[in-house]
Amino acid sequence: xxxxxxxxxxxxxxxxxxxxxxxxxxxxxxxxxxxxxxxxxxxxxxxxxxxxxxxxxxxxxxxxxxxxxxxxxxxxxxxxxxxxxxxxxxxxxxxxxxxxxxxxxxxxxxxxxxxxxxxxxxxxxxxxxxxxxxxxxxxxxxxxxxxxxxxxxxxxxxxxxxxxxxxxxxxxxxxxxxxxxxxxxxxxxxxxxxxxxxxxxxxxxxxxxxxxxxxxxxxxxxxxxxxxxxxxxxxxxxxxxxxxxxxxxxxxxxxxxxxxxxxxxxxxxxxxxxxxxxxxxxxxxxxxxxxxxxxxxxxxxxxxxxxxxxxxxxxxxxxxxxxxxxxxxxxxxxxxxxxxxxxxxxxxxxxxxxx
Amino acid sequence: xxxxxxxxxxxxxxxxxxxxxxxxxxxxxxxxxxxxxxxxxxxxxxxxxxxxxxxxxxxxxxxxxxxxxxxxxxxxxxxxxxxxxxxxxxxxxxxxxxxxxxxxxxxxxxxxxxxxxxxxxxxxxxxxxxxxxxxxxxxxxxxxxxxxxxxxxxxxxxxxxxxxxxxxxxxxxxxxxxxxxxxxxxxxxxxxxxxxxxxxxxxxxxxxxxxxxxxxxxxxxxxxxxxxxxxxxxxxxxxxxxxxxxxxxxxxxxxxxxxxxxxxxxxxxxxxxxxxxxxxxxxxxxxxxxxxxxxxxxxxxxxxxxxxxxxxxxxxxxxxxxxxxxxxxxxxxxxxxxxxxxxxxxxxxxxxxxx
Lengths: 355, 355
Known about the structure:
globular; four-stranded antiparallel sheet; 25% strand; six-stranded mixed sheet; 8 helices; homodimer
């Protein structure tokens, strides 16, 4: 026999706000039909009755009746899927390829493992994706929506005669997140390798959440400086002028790491008192040194057909310089994590139905 | 005669990090060519010389030479364009229509006034936009990129037989921001009125930044609770399942208001200790009461041809119930503030060239 539910310790307004009845929740959409100011401020549970797996509450002063599933009371809090609590942080040496590489042939029938890797590890490599132009847009479309930017719906990463970004040259690019000068930043990036015949041009990936967590452990003052200092990031070309003021490490109010923005190429000029600048630069250098530790970087040469999908709020990417004579051509696009999480949510539901 | 520049009080690493020479900044892209760890940690200005409007520094220990414009040293900090510091907060009674209404006929030739209104006030109404299906996408394309979501690139706001959202019924919708269950949230919303023959269905807009600032003045404890408490927002239908954990009021580390998310329909279940729930709900009610003050709401009946463009991180929108018998049809889409700011930045540059 179930023990009697003691609701005396619960918040009355919280209970009432979560009433699932069809007057409170639209049965078609699941959306709440009242606002907080529609509830009596002094609502109290006048009667509480348990019927098997249900709990009925009759409210004073208005007589409203709520019926809850008994199990609802004990449901756990859902963690923020974007914070470090929902992630598996990794060190490159420990991250076996079987955890993040997935054959394209099995992806359409079973996308969940690769999408889960993007959500938990921050990246997945789909292998043998057809080497067809614009295929990267189709990959993005399997889990979300392309985020168009000034670089287009799709961008070509190859040597250009008149580059507006160093990405479109053959120089080495150190670990960075993309588009930190954009707010909201694109939260997913895809890079699809169509050709990689150049000498050099190997890719590297770094778990920025892990580096931030290491910095918090080892140099907590530096960590706090990076969390609290908005940095102006900038991009400017003939057709656009973008600027965002965001900290290098974004944390929620409880101090959980939620976002990393790191890009030496596009950091603008901070205007702060000299002592704060000295403090910021020491912290910035400390974080860069943490990111640059050799064990942090997963090195991987992209082969034609590889499509990397990664969390641009967490995983930094890099490439070595390459010989401009050899052909190297990636196609990329941006998308967003909420669509990816939503796709996984629906897949989980379907899996649950099948079970 | 200019006074000698005293660089003794400046941060050496900051000066060096901002060296504009072509070895430090790519002349083609303006991007920085070095990382912070490439700079000597102990760089000091060994020699400082002033030549007219330029200042030359020779650095020890590496002998690097930097030449700065004298004016660069005194440039002011640029405010974060997304925070309250860059906004004009308004009260509906004081906001004359001439500040936010703009004829479509003059918009293509001179979009800056309307876009500036979106940036500063949080909204603009373009009048007499052609009543053509999908025109709203063209309006978004004048300043940025459409953000596609599970609702499509474009969504129709009208009564539907099987709505997945109360927006697509005829019920009243209280002031809210859209898609709080999305992260990143769409930062701009457009609504283009094609028909409004129904009785009722008037629109309302509330400045959420002003309401948050009022709450901070009047009930600072409540304000702080809303800034520090992540709220789970949720949306679920047959094809998607979205969830975001974000506070109702987003502030930067210096306490500047930067984002408001408020939507009674899609607030999920908070799981917190009872005392924190009681505190949260008191704060939530206080903010709702502030938003609901009659003087907060700008009421406007949308006429066919009106296209409202508003900042969905700041301005809440609402509508009264309407008679489902009369035709009411809006077409909407989402876009982002960074694109809008970038377009304004380029327009300012052009204006500067012409001046």
